[in-house]
Amino acid sequence: MPDRRPLYPPTTPYKTGRLKVSDLHEIYYEECGNPAGKPVVVLHGGPGGGISPFLRQGHDPARYRIILFDQRGCGQSTPFASLEQNTTWDLVADTEALRGHLGIERWQVAGGSWGSTLALAYAVTHPDRVTELVLRGIFMIRQQEIDWFYELGGASFLFPEAFAAYQAPIPDAERGAMVAAYHRILTGPPSAAQDAAARAWTLWEARTLSLLPNPAREAAWDDGHYATAFARIENHYFQHKGFFAQDGWLLCQAHKLHAIPGTIIHGRYDACTPVRNAVDLAAVWPQAKLVIVPDAGHTGTEPGIADAMVRATDLYCAL
User: Fold this and answer.
1) Coil, strand, or helix at residue 175?
2) What order of strands is seen across the sheet that includes strand 262-267?
3) Which of 94, 270, 280, 307 is catalytic?
4) 133 vs 167: CA distance, rounded Å
5) pLDDT in tens, 35-66
6) 298 is catalytic
7) Which of 113, 116, 156, 210 is catalytic?
8) Tell me: the pLDDT tens digits for 104-160?
9) Is 196 exposed, middle or buried (0-12, 13-18, 19+ CB in 10 A)?
């Protein structure tokens, strides 16, 4: 195995801005790297996660114009934790509005986890605007995917102690439908119980998304402000099945990707979004290169995932 390459060094934005995208919502965006470089929009996870610094590091800052934005309701976008006018299709429209606002004709679209979901939804809606797709930790919000991670019987068998903590805020009688039970609490009036539920929901993901323990990540995610947006928005999307017309909708639309080059990166031991998701996507999008990292989980900071990411983005910049 060749030496693994790390993510590019940390970088800071050379420009930030805000874009009014509806009568209610305003999104924060930033640009990093080379203003004259190849444009790429990097879509963060969650939904509700906001920009993470490592998302700026998957592309060569000397050759890419790297654009990120906080999706509706999270990060520095406003109003905070709002579920109103907050659907997949609102975010697809926001992505396209930002492209137009920045005067970009076509761009690469990259994203991991929920970011891969949004990238796929954007690409099948606006395929003529996408030069390439670079996706990791594939997630398509199929019911089987939600059940695997958020209900008893899938990832709970791998992380029983963490799952017990995730179950703790939910009454015994409601534990057969965890997403629905959390939705009831997270969309109710603010309370100590709601805060506890938001933290429990968020920590379940923080404790399971990597093969490498990361106490610092768990501590950062166990923040009431962050957890409120993350849990409320993520649960809202899952309760509504991604706002797709049918289960498996993205796979049904994958024929629209056939003119778009792409790389699908997935950890073999991803407990959040199982590798079957990536295999299913590759089967209907044969033009994409499938990279299964043999010793990785879900997060983009694991060495094998980072290596695959920078190799893919370097290749597309050289084309």
Assistant:
1) coil
2) 15-20, 26-33, 64-69, 38-43, 107-112, 130-136, 262-267, 288-293
3) 270
4) 36
5) 999 999 999 999 999 999 999 999 999 999 99
6) yes
7) 113
8) 999 999 999 999 999 999 999 999 999 999 999 999 999 999 999 999 999 999 999
9) middle
Which residues, 6+ apart, have CB-to-CB distance to 160 below 8 Å?
A: none
pLDDT at residue 318, rounded to an integer: 79
Half-sphere exposure of 278 (CA within 13 A, CB side): 28
Tokens of 268: 């073999």
List the beta strands (DSSP E) in 179-310. Answer: 262-267, 288-293
Asked if residue 244 lies in contact with residue 88, where contact means CB atoms within 8 angstroms, the answer is yes
> What are the C-alpha distances in Å from 249 to residues 113, 121, 150, 267, 282?
17, 9, 20, 23, 15
C-alpha to C-alpha distance for 137 and 208, rounded to whole angstroms? 13
Identify whether the C-beta of residue 122 lies closer than 8 Å to the C-beta of residue 92: yes
Task: Classify burial at 36, counting beta carbons within 10 Å of its beta carbon; exposed 0-12, middle 13-18, buried 19 or more.
Answer: exposed
Provide the pLDDT for residue 1.
Answer: 55
Q: Is 110 helix (H, G, I), strand (E, B) or coil?
A: strand
Residue 189: partners with Cβ closer than 8 Å, 6 or more residues away: none
158: tokens are 């791998």
Q: DSSP string of 165-189?
A: HHHTTS-GGGTTSHHHHHHHHHTS-
Q: Which two tokens stand for residue 183?
A: 């939705």
Q: What whole-number distance in Å separates Cα of residue 243 and Cα of residue 315?
A: 34
Kindly state the tokens that stand for 133.
């797709």
Residues in the chain: 319
Q: Which structure tokens are listed for 278? A: 């990536």
On the 0-12 / 13-18 / 19+ scale of CB atoms within 10 A, 128 is exposed
Domains of the chain plus CATH, in order, are 15-143+243-318 (3.40.50.1820), 146-242 (no CATH)
Q: Which of 25, 44, 266, 298 is catalytic?
A: 298
